[in-house]
Amino acid sequence: MPLLSLKRLLLCFCLSVIGLPGWAAEMPGPDDVLIASSLIASTEAPSSGSTTTLAILMEPQGEWHGYWKQPGDVGLPAKFTWHLPDGVTVGDPAYPLPQTLLIEGLMNHVYEHPYALLVDLTLEDNLPDGTALPIRVDMQYLACRYDACVPERASLDTTLHVGDGRQSPDVAARFASWRQALPRPLAAPASFSVDGDLLRLRVPLPASVSIQNPHLFSATKGAIDNAAPQRVERHDDELIVETRAGDQIPDAFLATLKLSDSLGLDIDVRRGGPASAAGSGLNTILFALAGAIAGGLLLNLMPCVFPILSLKAMSLARSGISPAIARRDAVAYTSGVVLVCVLLGAVLLALRAAGAQVGWAFQLQNASVILILMLLTTAIAFNLAGLFELAAIDAGTKLTNQSGASGAFWTGALAAFIATPCSGPFMAAALGAALVLPTAAAMLVFSGLGLGIALPFLLLGFIPALQRRLPRPGPWMETLRRLLAVPMFLTALALLWVLSHQVPADALVASLGCAMLLALGLWLTGLWQQKLKRNAWLPSALALILSLGLGWSQVSGQTAPAIDVQRRAFDEQQLAQLRADKVPVFLYFTADWCITCKVNEQVAINREATAQAFAAAGVEVMRGDWTNGDPVITAFLERHGRSGVPLYLWYGAGEAEPRLLPQILRPDSLPELVRR
């Protein structure tokens, strides 16, 4: 311990024991109570087998203050000795959010106003009604002010009787206000690293959560220097706190993070070094990377990507190129795919950092982008169908006509770009995790998605044995090319369906007219090509310009509406009535500061597939918002064995008990509930 801090502690000790002559008249007498205390039960008649709550109300008098469970540089925590009847157990007290009090460079974690410590009291089953339950607690605690500290004792008691658990409205309201002052438990763990005497703490916290005068209280003594300045900054969905490390830093410790005077979070902090970072953070990154690669690989089977992959494979079969050129084209194709995925990921992260609530395939939230994709896939489909051959248009026809590294690169870029309307297994979880990872790790995941998309052609280019297994060139290749037009037409149709959810009916009809106009231009181009006319590209070019101009004027500025299931605010009486009526209910509890909740809402809850499945099955959705605390929700969470969010419950029609769902939801977790 520094010499200066030791001197200050000795000075405080001397003042608390002997006082100074000038202050002696102001010291309390032996019968003065400096912090009044009382024991209050939330119900005088707790039911057998239930858990009720006791409040130890502490009321500092005048300038005196009490201490948090970790008092800081000076002071002592309160000690409790319980005397309980058989069949009754008690938990540890829950402390409200403390205040900071800096005196002569010493940091105190204190309460200068009345505060309540809440304690859970659990009764065993089968206690007879009317059984008397005498409860007593003996306390030792410290009362302090700026110039002195006085140890105090109190013995508090009450007698409860086993009954029906009924609460009086006045007492219920008091307990509600006391619960409101408690910090909320953060489900996701925080991590820390130490560089010299600097401790850097990383807390997952959505960027949308506002903070005011934040402060970190360590509940473990010696983890941080309590009096050291704290620097707080935000980085995407992460809050970073930097302060001076303590002299006894454990590998894990508990802390309370004050976000504002009325909101705090209890956090579990783990060392972010090789043991835990590799165990949790690195595992998360590797899991997301593996999911992205697998998801990208499976995208090659989707209607929007499979034709392009097939055409590139056909080009190898047709040309009989050397192994070196095959490898070159494979690398160029992979580079184009990965570059587009990385660029889309970078734009996505930049938009989220700027405050936009967007996810993967965010470009599909813009109707103009969907129109361009629809016209592009329409042109590719007609090209595959043999309507025209136009090497001058680099959109889709170079997939079959252009050779060389440049053609392979742009083919890969096109494959990645038109793959965005598609969705495959593993992708949602992987990309959802990428949105909450650090930027470098997120970019690695986006690169993994591109690698997965390019992997089949990459392997084909580097493994001659696979090339030799390709069928020999022949007339079948033209037949296959015509067949591959079908999935591309289906992709164009799917894009038109997406557009129908974003624009009015007249704009949708205009977009369909644009596709027909483009098809007309491509048909005329094909006729001119057959007659070997010069400037055969003119009809399609004019049709493309007119289609884009007309379509842009109709859909420009249209954005995708937020997909959201119809839901009610949480209400226990409404829930009971819905269950009595045998209506299926999905109930979930969330908070703005819960990053796990936000990822689940994006990945699984606020999805069109979920909304459609729930609507078809008549499922009612209830949402409990625990952002600022709610005593009713707190009590409900505790009854279901949870101290925090998220909590997901499924009440099947007529089922007696709810089904507890996992805290991490998959994209199809909720639609599966109604299919069972």
TrEMBL record:
Subcellular location: Cell membrane
SUPFAM superfamilies: Thioredoxin-like
GO molecular function ontology, one term from the record: protein-disulfide reductase activity
PROSITE patterns: THIOREDOXIN_2 (PS51352)
CDD domains for the chain: DsbDgamma
Transmembrane segments: 285-309, 330-355, 367-388, 409-435, 441-463, 483-501, 507-524
Entry superkingdom: Bacteria
Signal peptide extent: 1-24
Keywords, ordered alphabetically: Cell membrane, Cytochrome c-type biogenesis, Membrane, Signal, Transmembrane, Transmembrane helix
Membrane topology note: Multi-pass membrane protein
Domain named Thioredoxin: residues: 554-676
Protein name: Thiol:disulfide interchange protein
